[in-house]
Specification:
The protein is of the alpha+beta class. The chain has nine helices and 13 strands. Bound molecules: (R)-mevalonate (MEV). The site of (R)-mevalonate has 14 residues, from α4 and α5.
Length: about 300
């Protein structure tokens, strides 16, 4: 194959971020902000016209290192996902790149894309759980659990923790994502929570309670009970705040959006990055978020995960 074009969505976590690192359940959905990658055989490696560089193209470089031993590639990327926002920009570029490399080799089955994308993220940033790469690969909704349940897709094991990834049927949720404009650093936030978790029994209780809230959310998600989903989001948010991953800007956006929402919470690693609100009034919520200085994205669920858009 000479040329492949792929695309991958981004994601938001509805329930269970941070807790999922310790094997607790979590729920995420893919959203329709996408990254596109075009890959062509060439004389030397380049990304968007620049030489392939560890500092700027970490995920692409790692994917090539782990998966490719063919001739050099000219790679062109375009992404609608703001970086370090908590919306999975690194998973999105990773999955788009990995699926393109695997498509070049005719090995782009979903499970293969998901497992290799997790490997790339993990080896690049010591990533803690496979939730982002699995959601971006599969699209729709994902439930990560600590045992096999209905709609099982694949499992992942790292450092003694095993995650079972499942498809989750989710209703057409109307979400607004509010970006604080402050870059969140996932490895630092995961480390901060890890210290708290290691030394403090109360933090361990908080993590377990987040896991319980996630499991409680499955039924209302299936029954489109938005009031209940919103309540559980608010409870999850309180616990994330206790874990120390909030930020005054996130709190301001959450408070502003609650006037028009069923519920709102930090999403992703926190410490900056994004919040999400579940609402019937996306315009009102977006306005409220922008009034307090955030950037609002009215998003819907991406039904498709990674896609091979063309191959020649
Ligand atoms: C980040 O999107 C989610 C975290 O739980 C880290 C992870 O699971 O890899 C904070």
């Amino acid at each position: 194959m000479q040329r492949v074009i792929t695309s991958a969505p981004s994601k938001v976590i509805l329930f269970g971020e941070h807790a999922v690192v310790y094997g607790e359940p979590a729920i995420a959905v893919a959203i329709n902000l996408r990254t596109t990658v075009m890959m062509e055989r060439a004389r030397e490696y380049s990304v968007n016209g620049e030489p392939l560089d560890d500092r700027y193209h970490r995920y692409i470089k790692k994917a090539i290192e782990l998966l490719w031993d063919g001739e050099p590639l000219r790679i062109t990327t375009a992404s609608a996902v703001p970086s370090a926002s908590g919306m999975g920009s690194s998973a999105s570029i990773t999955v788009a790149t990995v699926s393109a490399l695997l498509a070049m080799m005719g090995r782009e089955e979903e499970r293969n894309v998901a497992l290799n994308s997790f490997r790339v993220e993990y080896e690049t940033q010591g990533r803690a759980s496979p939730i982002d790469t699995s959601t971006v690969t599969h699209g729709k909704g994902i439930l990560v659990a600590n045992r096999k349940m209905d709609n099982f897709l694949w499992e992942v094991e790292r450092g003694g923790t095993r995650w079972y990834i499942h498809h989750l049927e989710v209703p057409p949720l109307k979400l607004v994502v509010g970006f604080s404009g402050i870059k969140g650093h996932t490895p630092e936030m995961v480390e901060k929570v890890r210290r708290f978790y290691t030394w403090n029994a109360f933090a361990r209780d908080v993590i377990r309670e987040i896991g319980r809230i996630t499991l409680e959310a499955i039924e209302p998600l299936e029954n489109e009970d938005y009031e209940r989903i919103g309540e559980l989001m608010n409870r999850n948010n309180k616990l994330l705040t206790i874990l120390g991953v909030s930020h005054p800007k996130l709190k301001e956006m959450i408070d502003a959006s609650l006037r028009y929402s069923y519920g709102a919470k930090i999403t992703g690693a926190g410490g900056g990055g994004c919040m999400i609100a579940l609402t019937d009034e996306q315009d009102e919520v977006a306005k409220a978020i922008e009034e307090v200085g955030g950037k609002a994205y009215k998003v819907s669920i991406a039904q498709r995960g990674y896609e091979i858009m063309s191959r020649e």
